Amino acid sequence: MTSLSATPAPPPISDGTATPQTDPDIVQAFLDQPAMMLRARAISKTFVLHTQGSVRIPALDHVDLDLARGECVVLVGPSGAGKSTLLRCLYGNYLASAGTIHVRTPVSPTSQRDEAAICTALTGASPHSILALRRQVLGYVSQFLHVIPRVPTLTLVAEPLVLRGVERELAQTRAATLLERLNVPRRLWNLAPATFSGGEQQRVNIARGLIAEHPLLLLDEPTASLDADNRAVVAALIDEARARGAAIVGIFHDEDTRAQVATRRLEFQPVLRTAA
Amino acid sequence: MLNPLLEVRHLTKRYGERIGCRDVSFDLYPGEVLCVVGESGSGKSTLLNTLALRHAADAGTLRYRSVQDDWLDLLALSEPRRRLLMRSEWGFVEQNPRDGLRAGVSAGANIGEPLMAVGARHYGRIRDTAAQWMERVELDTARIDELPSAFSGGMQQRLQIARNLVTGPRLVFMDEPTAGLDVSVQARLLDLLRTLTSQLNLSALIVTHDIGVARLLAHRLMVMQHGSVVEAGLTDQVLDDPQHPYTQLLVSSVLPV
Q1: CB–CB of A149/B189 below 8 Å?
Q2: Which residue among B84, B216, B233 sits closest to A127, beta carbon to beta carbon?
Q3: Ranges under pLDDT 70 in chain A
Q4: Residue numbers in B near A143 (CB within 8 A)
Q5: Looking at the complex, does the CB of residue A12 fall below 8 Å from at least one CB of chain B?
Q6: 3-state secondary structure (DSSP) of residue A190
Q7: What is the dihedral of CA B61, B65, B69, B73, to 10 degrees?
Q8: Which residues pair with A67 in a beta bridge?
Q9: How far is B187 from chain A (nearest CA, A)?
Q10: B199 vs B88: CA distance, rounded Å
Q11: Does B105 reach chain A within 8 Å, measured CB to CB?
Q12: Which residues make beta-bridge pairs with A251?
């Protein structure tokens, strides 16, 4: 084969892929508090709707949150107070307008890292690092199932484990156990969930969200369309995740579930909407 | 972090006075699927064709890290070397499968040909590989000797994908690969593309006007308008929290399912 002409490797580039500088105080906090998984400071979010006369909608105003292993913080407050917006900012799905979010970097036993690498900034991170954090650290369960059509339920649920390098067969066994636990009938496992009921889809979504045992879980109303029995199953699964050391932050529409899973509550009030 | 596979800086393509694409910069990483979205005339196909060296760029730099880990200056590549690269490390899936298939030879030969172009000579083994790829893209291997025209549009598209992937490329360009297919066939093709890109750790640059396709396939998204990239980022972030007026318009124009 003809060799292709070569040029030397290009110099490092600065197109936003560089790791943002982390405040030494935040690094120190992660060093001092071994259980701390996440620190969010002064998170603000304002939506600017360019298609509607550039109206500005403030959703979050200087929200602080620390989250430790074994903790389940429940966000409470009226609809429109910004609870979901905060979760989405923590997942990197929304861009925070101001403030910083740091999560503990997953420990890789072979690498010798300097102190600053103990946490990773989610705010300002490249798509690349956010995807890596989602694979290894951040699990998110939304209210609705958004998946590729035609893929069977069992494969969908096993997918996050496979992405983390677990063998397909083992991942599917684990998926089956979880679906069984969530009372998703076995006859549905080899079907795509598009035609399932709302509650069934939600349980598939929960299984998909919990299977990889992410150390940090973000739960956005995972029990909204479930009956009391299935809500109890989900609450038990959340408790188990917490017991194995997951740090959890969630929104739950019913007080029973909140009472069962919460170790702490964070109150939200709608941001005052002054005419801008 | 991994090294990028493709490094694009300030790439510009003009058609006379008219701008095709302007000042486009990005990196593509191994195993990454990047979708370029925008309406027709936004310059996304021009960008794709310029990146794939089908159109000559007017300004900027374009580098590719070859399988030998050398950085190649693509804009200065000689024609034979460009063709070698296309055969051995790249693929290009056309919007219309008829443009990417050879009408006069069988399905099996369409898959086997690229193998022969990179040096395979053993007829039996080539035929076996072609059959394996037909299976992989869910085509009936009993039809290996039929001409492409005997297959439906969705099947032809899968045949074209097999023809492009059989040589084990590292980078594949796709121009609206699901356009012109029935919705049911689209879903199947999306599933196939997603499985193949992740199994083969393939980097892909996909042009599409379909936001739904982009959401399901892409890790990362670039939004183009009037030849420029107006917004880029993580797919779900760009679609759920678009910052640029044009992206907001594009996302809000998608009909609810």
Answers
A1: no
A2: B233
A3: 1-21, 108-113, 273-276
A4: none
A5: no
A6: coil
A7: -30
A8: A38
A9: 6
A10: 19
A11: no
A12: A220
Chain A residues in contact with B187 by the CB 8 A cut-off are 148-150
Q: What residue has token string 């006379």? A: B16
Region of A124 on the Ramachandran plot (φ > 0 left; ψ -120 to 50 alpha; else beta): left
**Residue B23: burial class (beta carbons within 10 Å; 0-12, 13-18, 19+):** middle
Between A228-243 and A198-210, two packed helices, what is the crossing angle to 10 degrees?
10
ipTM of the complex: 0.88
Phi then psi for residue A261, to 5 deg, are: -100, -25
Rounded Cα–Cα distance for residues B53 and A109 (Å)? 43
Closest residue to B187, CB basis, from A4, A131, A150? A150
Residue A274's contacts (CB-CB under 8 Å, 6 or more residues apart) are none
Q: Give the separation between CA B153 and CA B155, rounded to whole angstroms.
A: 5
Q: How far is B213 from chain A (nearest CA, A)?
A: 9
Residue A163 is encoded by which pair of tokens? 């992405």
Q: Report, as an integer, the average pLDDT of B101-117.
A: 95
Tokens 């740090």 belong to A247
A60 closest CA partner among A90, A81, A39: A81
In terms of Cβ atoms closer than 10 Å to its own Cβ (0-12, 13-18, 19+), residue A187 is: exposed
CB of A81 within 8 A of CB of A257?
Answer: no
Contact A51 B245 (CB under 8 A): yes
Residues 182-201 in B contacting A (C-alpha not used; CB under 8 Å): 187-188, 190-191, 194
Give the pTM.
Answer: 0.89
- Is B81–A10 a contact, with Cβ atoms under 8 angstroms apart? no
What is the reported pLDDT for A20? 57
Residue % of chain B over a pLDDT of 70: 98
How far, rounded to the nearest angstrom, does the alpha carbon of residue A23 sit from its chain's CA centroid?
23
Who among B63, B66, B76 is closest to A10 (CB)?
B63
Please check the confidence at residue B120 and state whether its pLDDT lies above 60.
yes
List of E strands, A16-137: 36-49, 55-68, 72-76, 98-104, 119-121
Q: Which residue of A has its CA nearest to B199?
A: A163
Q: Which residues of B touch A129 (CB under 8 A)?
A: 1
Among A28, A215, A216, A18, which Cα is nearest to A116's? A28
B76 interfaces chain A, CB cutoff of 8 Å:
yes
To the nearest whole Å, the CA of A4 is away from the closest chain B CA by: 6
**Is the CB of A16 inside 8 Å of chain B's CB atoms?**
no
